Amino acid sequence: MKWLLGLVGALYPLLIAAGLVRFEPRTVALPVLGLILARAWLGRHALARLPRATSVAGVAALAALATLAAFAALANSEASLLLLPACVSLALMSFGLSTLIAGRPLIESLARMQVDSLSEPEVRYCRQVTWVWVGFLAANGAAIVALALLGQRSHWALYTGVISYLLIGALFASEYVYRHYRFRRYLGAPTDPLLMRMFPPREGGR
Hints:
- By secondary structure, the chain is mainly alpha-helical.
- The longest helix is centred in the middle third of the chain and has 31 residues, at 120-150.
- Helices cover 82% and strands 0% of the residues.
- It has ten helices and no strands.
- The chain has one domain (2-198).
- It starts with a helix and ends in an 8-residue tail after the last helix.
- It has helices spanning 2-10, 12-22, 25-42, 44-49, 52-75, 78-102, 106-112, 120-150, 153-183, 192-198.
Protein backbone atom coordinates (compact mmCIF):
# COMPACT_ATOMS: atom_id res chain seq x y z
CA MET A 1 0.00 0.00 0.00
CA LYS A 2 2.80 2.41 0.88
CA TRP A 3 4.57 1.92 -2.45
CA LEU A 4 1.30 2.58 -4.27
CA LEU A 5 0.76 5.82 -2.36
CA GLY A 6 4.36 6.78 -3.10
CA LEU A 7 3.87 6.16 -6.81
CA VAL A 8 0.66 8.18 -6.89
CA GLY A 9 2.42 10.97 -5.01
CA ALA A 10 5.27 11.01 -7.54
CA LEU A 11 2.80 11.14 -10.44
CA TYR A 12 0.56 13.67 -8.67
CA PRO A 13 1.29 16.68 -10.94
CA LEU A 14 0.58 14.80 -14.15
CA LEU A 15 -2.50 13.07 -12.70
CA ILE A 16 -3.89 16.39 -11.44
CA ALA A 17 -3.25 18.16 -14.74
CA ALA A 18 -5.02 15.33 -16.59
CA GLY A 19 -7.88 15.24 -14.09
CA LEU A 20 -8.54 18.96 -14.28
CA VAL A 21 -9.01 18.69 -18.04
CA ARG A 22 -12.10 16.52 -17.54
CA PHE A 23 -13.34 17.23 -14.00
CA GLU A 24 -13.94 20.22 -11.79
CA PRO A 25 -11.43 20.80 -8.96
CA ARG A 26 -13.63 19.47 -6.13
CA THR A 27 -14.04 16.14 -7.92
CA VAL A 28 -10.25 15.81 -8.15
CA ALA A 29 -9.64 17.12 -4.63
CA LEU A 30 -11.71 14.49 -2.79
CA PRO A 31 -9.58 11.46 -3.75
CA VAL A 32 -6.47 13.55 -3.11
CA LEU A 33 -7.71 14.24 0.42
CA GLY A 34 -8.33 10.53 0.88
CA LEU A 35 -4.79 9.70 -0.20
CA ILE A 36 -3.32 12.24 2.21
CA LEU A 37 -5.34 10.84 5.11
CA ALA A 38 -4.34 7.27 4.17
CA ARG A 39 -0.66 8.27 4.04
CA ALA A 40 -0.95 9.95 7.44
CA TRP A 41 -2.58 6.85 8.94
CA LEU A 42 0.04 4.46 7.55
CA GLY A 43 2.90 6.68 8.70
CA ARG A 44 1.61 7.48 12.19
CA HIS A 45 3.92 5.02 13.99
CA ALA A 46 7.01 6.20 12.09
CA LEU A 47 6.20 9.80 12.99
CA ALA A 48 5.83 8.89 16.66
CA ARG A 49 9.36 7.45 16.75
CA LEU A 50 11.00 10.63 15.43
CA PRO A 51 12.50 13.35 17.66
CA ARG A 52 9.82 15.68 19.00
CA ALA A 53 10.68 18.70 16.80
CA THR A 54 10.77 16.54 13.69
CA SER A 55 7.58 14.70 14.61
CA VAL A 56 5.73 17.98 15.18
CA ALA A 57 6.95 19.26 11.80
CA GLY A 58 5.70 16.09 10.11
CA VAL A 59 2.27 16.26 11.73
CA ALA A 60 1.96 19.95 10.89
CA ALA A 61 2.89 19.24 7.25
CA LEU A 62 0.27 16.50 6.90
CA ALA A 63 -2.34 18.72 8.54
CA ALA A 64 -1.51 21.54 6.11
CA LEU A 65 -1.80 19.21 3.13
CA ALA A 66 -5.15 17.83 4.32
CA THR A 67 -6.47 21.33 5.02
CA LEU A 68 -5.46 22.57 1.57
CA ALA A 69 -7.06 19.55 -0.13
CA ALA A 70 -10.23 19.98 1.91
CA PHE A 71 -10.37 23.67 0.99
CA ALA A 72 -9.91 22.77 -2.68
CA ALA A 73 -12.91 20.46 -2.42
CA LEU A 74 -15.13 22.90 -0.51
CA ALA A 75 -14.23 25.98 -2.57
CA ASN A 76 -13.84 24.12 -5.87
CA SER A 77 -10.41 25.77 -6.08
CA GLU A 78 -7.98 24.72 -8.80
CA ALA A 79 -5.22 26.92 -7.37
CA SER A 80 -5.34 25.01 -4.07
CA LEU A 81 -4.75 21.74 -5.90
CA LEU A 82 -1.84 23.23 -7.80
CA LEU A 83 -0.31 24.50 -4.55
CA LEU A 84 -0.21 21.05 -2.94
CA PRO A 85 3.20 20.04 -4.41
CA ALA A 86 4.62 23.33 -3.12
CA CYS A 87 3.23 22.45 0.29
CA VAL A 88 5.00 19.07 0.08
CA SER A 89 8.28 20.72 -0.89
CA LEU A 90 8.02 23.27 1.90
CA ALA A 91 7.04 20.54 4.35
CA LEU A 92 10.17 18.57 3.47
CA MET A 93 12.15 21.79 3.86
CA SER A 94 10.65 22.25 7.33
CA PHE A 95 11.45 18.63 8.16
CA GLY A 96 15.10 19.11 7.21
CA LEU A 97 15.27 22.41 9.05
CA SER A 98 13.79 20.82 12.18
CA THR A 99 16.59 18.23 12.20
CA LEU A 100 19.16 21.01 12.02
CA ILE A 101 17.52 22.72 14.97
CA ALA A 102 17.15 19.46 16.90
CA GLY A 103 20.91 18.88 16.77
CA ARG A 104 21.41 15.99 14.33
CA PRO A 105 20.87 16.96 10.69
CA LEU A 106 18.84 14.63 8.50
CA ILE A 107 21.79 13.74 6.24
CA GLU A 108 23.89 12.81 9.27
CA SER A 109 21.14 10.49 10.54
CA LEU A 110 20.98 8.81 7.12
CA ALA A 111 24.76 8.46 7.02
CA ARG A 112 24.89 6.86 10.47
CA MET A 113 22.46 4.20 9.26
CA GLN A 114 25.19 3.05 6.83
CA VAL A 115 28.43 3.50 8.79
CA ASP A 116 29.53 2.90 12.37
CA SER A 117 31.17 6.29 12.87
CA LEU A 118 31.72 9.62 11.16
CA SER A 119 34.77 11.86 11.33
CA GLU A 120 34.40 15.50 12.33
CA PRO A 121 34.81 16.69 8.71
CA GLU A 122 32.10 14.23 7.67
CA VAL A 123 29.75 15.48 10.39
CA ARG A 124 30.28 19.07 9.23
CA TYR A 125 29.72 18.00 5.65
CA CYS A 126 26.43 16.31 6.56
CA ARG A 127 25.22 19.55 8.12
CA GLN A 128 26.24 21.54 5.04
CA VAL A 129 24.47 19.11 2.70
CA THR A 130 21.31 19.28 4.82
CA TRP A 131 21.37 23.07 4.42
CA VAL A 132 21.79 22.67 0.65
CA TRP A 133 18.69 20.47 0.49
CA VAL A 134 16.74 22.88 2.69
CA GLY A 135 17.64 25.73 0.33
CA PHE A 136 16.77 23.71 -2.75
CA LEU A 137 13.38 22.67 -1.36
CA ALA A 138 12.58 26.28 -0.45
CA ALA A 139 13.41 27.44 -4.00
CA ASN A 140 11.50 24.53 -5.52
CA GLY A 141 8.42 25.34 -3.43
CA ALA A 142 8.61 29.00 -4.40
CA ALA A 143 8.80 28.10 -8.11
CA ILE A 144 5.72 25.86 -7.84
CA VAL A 145 3.78 28.59 -6.01
CA ALA A 146 4.65 31.11 -8.73
CA LEU A 147 3.55 28.77 -11.52
CA ALA A 148 0.34 27.85 -9.70
CA LEU A 149 -0.64 31.47 -9.11
CA LEU A 150 0.20 32.47 -12.69
CA GLY A 151 -2.42 29.98 -13.85
CA GLN A 152 -0.25 28.30 -16.49
CA ARG A 153 -1.36 24.73 -15.83
CA SER A 154 0.78 23.20 -18.60
CA HIS A 155 3.91 25.00 -17.37
CA TRP A 156 3.08 24.00 -13.81
CA ALA A 157 2.70 20.33 -14.83
CA LEU A 158 5.96 20.40 -16.83
CA TYR A 159 7.98 21.89 -13.99
CA THR A 160 6.35 20.00 -11.13
CA GLY A 161 6.04 16.64 -12.85
CA VAL A 162 9.28 16.59 -14.86
CA ILE A 163 11.78 19.41 -14.34
CA SER A 164 11.74 19.38 -10.54
CA TYR A 165 12.44 15.63 -10.50
CA LEU A 166 15.34 16.13 -12.92
CA LEU A 167 16.73 18.87 -10.66
CA ILE A 168 16.40 16.61 -7.61
CA GLY A 169 18.19 13.82 -9.47
CA ALA A 170 20.96 16.16 -10.62
CA LEU A 171 21.50 17.48 -7.09
CA PHE A 172 21.53 13.99 -5.62
CA ALA A 173 23.95 12.66 -8.25
CA SER A 174 26.35 15.61 -8.05
CA GLU A 175 26.46 15.44 -4.25
CA TYR A 176 27.00 11.66 -4.38
CA VAL A 177 29.97 12.00 -6.73
CA TYR A 178 31.46 14.94 -4.84
CA ARG A 179 31.14 13.09 -1.52
CA HIS A 180 33.17 10.18 -2.88
CA TYR A 181 35.73 12.54 -4.36
CA ARG A 182 36.13 14.32 -1.03
CA PHE A 183 36.09 11.45 1.46
CA ARG A 184 36.91 8.32 -0.60
CA ARG A 185 34.72 6.16 1.64
CA TYR A 186 33.39 3.10 -0.17
CA LEU A 187 30.65 0.92 1.30
CA GLY A 188 30.12 -1.71 -1.38
CA ALA A 189 27.60 0.17 -3.52
CA PRO A 190 27.22 -0.90 -7.18
CA THR A 191 28.85 2.37 -8.24
CA ASP A 192 31.98 1.81 -6.10
CA PRO A 193 34.15 0.14 -8.81
CA LEU A 194 33.66 3.09 -11.16
CA LEU A 195 34.14 5.71 -8.45
CA MET A 196 37.22 3.94 -7.07
CA ARG A 197 38.80 4.18 -10.53
CA MET A 198 37.95 7.87 -10.66
CA PHE A 199 38.85 8.63 -7.03
CA PRO A 200 41.25 5.95 -5.66
CA PRO A 201 41.26 5.50 -1.86
CA ARG A 202 43.92 7.59 -0.18
CA GLU A 203 46.88 5.90 1.44
CA GLY A 204 46.36 5.40 5.16
CA GLY A 205 42.55 5.34 4.95
CA ARG A 206 40.25 8.37 4.72
